[in-house]
Design goal:
The protein has 15 helices and one strand; from the N terminus they run αααααααααααααβαα. The chain is mostly helical. It has a domain of 230 residues: Orthogonal Bundle (MetI-like fold). Helix 4 crosses helix 7, helix 10 packs across helix 12 and helix 11 runs antiparallel to helix 12. The longest helix has 30 residues.
């Protein structure tokens, strides 16, 4: 038997690195020739426009609340309009000397919303905390007690009104949407028909029409001398509108549950509500978390439409601030950019939170 000689194997190339910034750029920006071409084109556009934008927005901008300084030739953005009008933008027509009240009320509401998003606060007493904070919010905003002057709701505005309308309508619309979604899949024709009519009727009209009906038409059907506050009417209108859209999202999740799970629950002797609460709804809601959060983000931005009924939230308060002073009116672009940054901060935060929730509910599916 002849002896075998050792034949060394040629060295193989090192594996491609898949982690780090260089690997991320290679995979996401230059994965193929189309992606690489688009990266070069978009990068060229950004290199041509971003320096000019930064020069206008930062380096040549005027930060002094003096409209004459903003009219000097060569000056970029006039952020002085924000420095001059920020209190009207943030608090609307609320009395100037009492604006500490909406500041404290808004801080409490934001703290409550942040706490509600944290797992450590998902306890039974969270509902009591909501009641306490909402009570404090309305007491501070409305006053007429504990030595606070009375401020009618039609003078509320700016960020406190936006936060109030968005948060309350989201909280109230969610349980309504779940009931309506279950009702649309009910075996009882009367319940199914009623829920279907409600959803199709609300989805068939724009939100402006709902607000108009709630603010101007609804009082005509009330007995003489009886009136419901315009803020409550608007809040109810937004809630019902949001619930109709959210119900269809949840119904999509309910339809995605395999029928075999319902049959297995019936075999175990679970009642209808036990099946829905313990088996169907947890899975259905987990499937539609991105769509639900998309509805929440859209609802937060749709609060800007309440200006049509003379409630001046953020965008309405900005118009109010600029229309009352002709000297600052030419610099409305900077004012709207300031409002856009506020909306972006809230919407981006909700989007990131949605991603976190989606990861949490899908941990059981990870391998």
């Amino acid at each position: 038997m002849s002896a075998q000689t050792f034949q060394p194997i040629d060295p193989r190339p090192a594996p491609v690195k898949t982690e780090g910034i260089v690997a991320w750029i290679r995979i996401n920006l230059f994965g193929d020739w189309v992606t690489g071409l688009m990266t070069v084109v978009i990068g060229s556009i950004l290199l041509a426009t971003v320096p000019q934008l930064l020069s206008w927005a930062l380096f040549r901008a005027s930060w002094i609340p003096d409209f004459d300084a903003c009219r000097v030739e060569g000056v970029g953005a006039c952020w002085g309009v924000v420095a001059e009008k920020y209190r009207i933008i943030l608090f609307g027509r609320y009395p100037f000397e009492e604006q500490w009240r909406p500041l404290v009320a808004t801080s409490l509401m934001l703290g409550l919303l942040i706490a509600s998003c944290m797992r450590a606060f998902w306890k039974s007493w969270l509902a009591i905390l909501w009641i306490a904070v909402l009570t404090a919010f309305f007491l501070l905003m409305y006053g007429n007690t504990m030595g606070l002057t009375k401020v009618e709701t039609d003078r509320w505005g700016g960020l406190p009104l936006t936060i109030l309308l968005a948060s309350l309508s989201m909280v109230m619309a969610f349980p309504i949407a779940m009931v309506v979604a279950l009702g649309r899949r009910s075996a009882l024709p009367a319940i199914r028909t009623f829920c279907t009519i409600y959803v199709e009727l609300i989805r068939g009209v724009p939100l402006i029409s709902v607000l108009f009906m709630a603010s101007f038409m609804f009082p005509l059907f009330m007995p003489q001398g009886f009136s419901i506050d315009v803020l409550i009417r608007v809040l109810v209108g937004i809630t019902l509108f949001a619930a109709a859209y959210m119900a269809e999202v949840i119904r999509g999740g309910l339809q995605a549950i395999p029928k075999g799970q319902l049959e297995a629950a019936a075999t175990l002797g679970l009642s209808y509500w036990q099946t829905q609460v313990k088996i169907v709804l947890p899975q259905a809601l987990a499937m539609v978390v991105p769509s639900i959060m998309n509805n929440f983000i859209g609802l937060f931005k749709d609060t800007s439409l309440v200006t049509i009924v003379s409630l001046y939230e953020l965008t309405g308060a900005l118009s109010l601030a600029l229309n009352s002073d002709a000297n600052w009116r030419p610099f409305k672009i900077e004012g709207y950019l300031f409002i856009a940054m506020i909306y972006f901060a809230f919407c981006f935060s909700m989007s990131r939170y949605s991603i976190w929730v989606e990861k949490q509910v899908n941990k059981g599916k990870q391998r």
